[in-house]
Write a structure and sequence with these properties.
This protein has an eight-stranded mixed β-sheet with strand order 14-13-12-15-16-17-18-19, with helices on both faces. A seven-stranded mixed β-sheet has the order 1-2-3-4-6-8-11, sandwiched between helices. The chain has three domains: 259 residues, 2-enoyl-CoA Hydratase, Chain A, domain 1; 189 residues, 3-Layer(aba) Sandwich (Rossmann fold); 144 residues, Orthogonal Bundle (N-(1-d-carboxylethyl)-l-norvaline Dehydrogenase, domain 2), CATH 1.10.1040. By secondary structure, it is α/β, with parallel strands linked by helices. The protein has 26 helices and 19 strands.
């Protein structure tokens, strides 16, 4: 029978007495109004046909249903709502089976839960990531999922927002089977269910859970919330499913969903969601074809270089690591293998994948091996003569079409490029440590970087699973320049009377995983000290300068690595240090500063303003293309709480809120 069209995105075909309904709303089959309308039309059509014994719902392409259409958030609701569609599916008189061809996320999982049976392909995966947008499932997820897989497992999935593959989904009881021919299996299941009492998920009794398991799952979710509201609400709603009727639970869930959807927190997380889709997009590159990057050379296999190597290996690239000596090369390979081994032990990587990665890895003291590389990334000591000399040597080794990338944090890549024979092939790739874990990569477009070079490294970063943010050349790029600005403001407050631990406590209460002085200690104080010494000759003598950090370095206090920095780590824990307090008091006294107290609110307000002001300067100078890029850098590289949206979002929101 020819296909029937129920809406612009929903079609149906009758196969073996079953109406197969296909959702085709690219790119991710989001549940837009026309999808919801089409599903209801399809169900009405099947109900009226006696020859149809049931319905299969599936998706076109690689996705089953990728969730709600968040472009509809904030707009008047269009009938039918998703809860109404789901109620129709669950109460339907004929069997409805979900054939999850790919990802069933958010509302997609809720549709699957409402069906009377669920079959997944081996590419299928399930998740309710709503907490990542500051909301909870709003169409029955918190009430139906625990009825199917239990309270503890539902808290884990909904509270974390994580996605499970088909194999875990079947182990949890979320799906009935995983089949290579999922559509054929779904058709068979419809016939098996026809004439039998239908299993309506909302009518199931919630399985009994061990209180200890529920407590453990709850604590795990709440410990990672860092002040975000949605995870705690998700836990509360899932727990409620065990002792309230479905109707009451659904009403509570929907009211909570609407309240959270309209919150600043959710607006902030939606801002981050859309910002990530904009990041890395450069208008001038729209019609530029990236070069193929298959073999990656990495010069320097210390902590940073090894992390970059692992990221490249696990994304399928061949890697050639280069060190100065054979002994250093041997240690570099061991370092890379060690990171891969830890990933296997943690369950993040299969042992077979690790072995494949090691088979694609060569670490050598012979720089001539880099002649085969499509891209060479330097990860050597952050010193301009060292880096320029290296790039000049590479000019005589690599192919003419090879790309050279510098991983410098603070040096000017234009200076490095200018020292090479082909500056147009030089670009900045500023990874964040540990590079195999941190998502952020600042992609630095140098003055004469060729468009296809920029396009190539952007594509490479995305293949690594990274979040690339393009920026222009300035000292510290986006992230370190803003970090320097608000660290400077923090040091002003310390000199004026605030204790380092008070500033850190205020930032952590706001949602940062660590305060700025703790981060400073973790990174090592000597890096910024060296930069300040370089800048000393050109510093404006009239500008305020706080020398406390310099004094710490002069006494060998370089942070965690030396056991002492802004804090004392001799006990194994971070602790305020009376010696630092005495040093700060001496500096104040020498400048005749009368110390005053600061409230946590004042501390946070001043630091946020310092970030936003520096961000505005970056935009004005054309270093950053858009304010949302700055927010992403601060969230993904510097621990800014995502549910606050980033410093630029906060500044804009506060400006809009003023009368």
């Amino acid at each position: 029978m020819s296909a029937m069209r129920f809406s612009e995105s929903v079609t149906g075909t009758i196969l073996d007495g079953v109406l197969v309904v296909t959702i085709d709303n690219p790119p991710v089959n989001a549940i837009s109004a026309h999808v919801r309308q089409g599903l209801v039309e399809a169900l009405d059509h099947a109900a009226a046909l006696g020859m149809v014994v049931g319905v299969v719902i599936t998706g076109a392409g690689r996705t089953f249903v990728g969730g709600a259409d968040i472009k509809e958030f904030g707009k008047p609701p269009v009938e039918p709502t998703l809860p109404e569609v789901i109620e129709r599916i669950e109460s339907y008189g004929k069997p409805v089976v979900a054939a999850a061809n790919g990802a069933a996320l958010g509302g997609g999982s809720e549709i699957a839960l409402a069906c009377h049976g669920r079959v997944a392909s081996d590419k299928g995966n399930f998740g309710m990531p709503e907490v990542k947008l500051g909301i909870v499932p709003g169409a029955g997820g918190t009430q139906r999922l625990p009825r199917l897989i239990g309270i503890a497992a539902a808290i884990d999935l909904i509270g974390s927002g994580r996605t499970v593959k088909a194999t875990e989904a079947i182990a949890l009881g979320l799906v009935d089977s995983v089949e290579s021919d999922h559509l054929d299996a779904a058709l068979s299941l419809v016939h098996d269910l026809a004439g039998e009492p239908l299993r309506r998920t909302g009518m199931l009794e919630v399985p009994v859970s061990e209180p200890a398991d529920v407590d453990a799952a709850s604590k795990k979710v709440l410990s990672r919330a860092r002040g975000q509201t949605a995870p705690a609400e998700a836990v509360r709603l899932v727990k409620a499913a065990a002792h309230v009727e479905l109707k009451q639970g659904l009403a509570d869930e929907r009211a909570t969903f609407v309240r959270l959807r309209d919150s600043v927190e959710s607006a902030a997380l939606r801002h981050v969601f859309f910002a990530e889709r904009l990041a890395g997009k450069v208008e001038k590159l729209d019609n530029v074809t990236p070069r193929k990057i298959e073999i990656v050379g990495i010069v320097g296999t210390g902590l940073m270089g090894a992390g970059i190597a692992v990221a490249a290996l696990t994304s399928g690239h061949r890697v050639i690591g280069v060190e100065q000596t054979a002994e250093a090369a041997k240690k570099g390979r061991e370092r890379i293998a060690g990171i891969l081994d830890k990933s296997v032990q943690a369950g993040r990587l299969a042992a077979t994948v690790r072995d494949e990665c090691l088979a694609r890895l060569a670490v050598t003291a012979d720089a001539g091996e880099l002649a085969a590389a499509d891209l060479v990334i330097e990860a050597v000591f952050d010193d301009l003569p060292v880096k320029t000399e290296l790039f000049q040597r590479l000019d005589g080794i690599v192919r003419s079409d090879a790309i050279l990338a510098t991983n410098t944090s603070y040096l000017n890549p234009d200076d490095i490029a200018a020292a090479t024979a082909h500056p147009e092939r030089v670009v900045g790739l500023h990874f964040f440590s540990p590079a195999n874990i941190m998502r952020l990569v600042e992609v630095v477009a140098c003055k004469v970087t060729a468009p296809d070079v920029l396009a190539s490294v952007l594509a490479f970063a995305k293949k690594l699973g990274k979040l690339p943010v393009v920026c222009g050349v300035t000292e510290g790029f986006i992230g370190n320049r803003i970090f320097s600005a608000y660290r400077r403001e923090a040091e002003f407050m310390v000199e004026d009377g605030a204790a380092p631990h008070e500033i850190d406590a205020a930032l952590e209460a706001y949602g940062f995983p660590m305060g700025i002085f703790a981060v400073y200690d973790m990174a090592g104080l000597e890096i910024a000290w060296a930069r300040r010494k370089r800048q000393a000759a050109t510093r404006d003598p009239k500008a305020r300068y706080v020398e406390i950090a310099d004094r710490l370095c002069e006494t060998g206090r370089f942070g965690r690595k030396s056991g002492r920095g802004w804090y004392d780590y001799s006990s194994g824990e971070r602790a305020a240090d009376p010696e630092v307090t005495a040093l700060i008091e001496a500096v104040r006294a020498a400048k005749n500063i009368e110390p005053r107290s600061f409230t946590p609110e004042e501390i946070v307000e001043r630091l946020l303003k310092a970030m936003a002001d520096e961000g505005a300067a970056l935009l004005a100078e054309g270093i950053a293309a858009r304010s949302s890029d700055i927010d992403l850098v601060m969230i993904n590289g510097y621990g800014f709480p995502a549910h606050k949206g980033g410093p630029m979002f906060v500044a804009e929101t506060q400006k809009d809120a003023k009368p």
